[in-house]
Design a protein that fits this description.
Structural class: mainly beta
Mean pLDDT: 92
Largest sheet: 5 strands, mixed
Helix content: under 10%
Low-confidence stretches: none
Strand content: over 45%
Number of strands: 9
Distance between the termini: 69 Å
């Protein structure tokens, strides 16, 4: 039947986490400052996005998430605060976001050069 043919072609509904930028470079900063960056995102999928976990790879960072539940078409942001105290030279701080998106894990990068 036509119904059984179409059934195989139907795509599973799922949320889709899309970041405007996945790399932010704050440039040169002094070694006694904190910088805050915001990664803006949209749920461009067709079901509600749930952010299950945010894991920066450095204890020199903290984060603030606008919401862990983002409906279809809604925007949100992840704010990362980086403390440069005790750091020198090029810094690459990765943050991994786990969600129910098509791609379960998203990796963001914060770059800085501490002088």
């Amino acid at each position: 039947s036509v119904d059984s043919l179409n059934h195989g072609l139907m795509k599973k509904k799922s949320p889709k986490l899309i970041f405007e930028n996945d790399i932010i470079d704050v440039g040169r900063i002094s070694n006694d400052t904190s910088v805050i960056v915001k990664y803006f995102f949209t749920n461009s999928g067709d079901t509600t996005l749930i952010i299950e976990n945010v894991k920066p790879d450095c204890i020199c960072t903290s984060y603030n998430l606008s919401s862990d539940t983002i409906r279809t078409g809604e925007k949100g942001f992840l704010e990362i605060k980086f403390n440069s105290e005790g750091k020198t030279g090029e810094q690459k701080i990765f943050t991994v976001i786990k969600s129910n998106s098509e791609e379960k894990y998203t990796r963001l990068l914060l770059k800085a050069y501490v002088i």
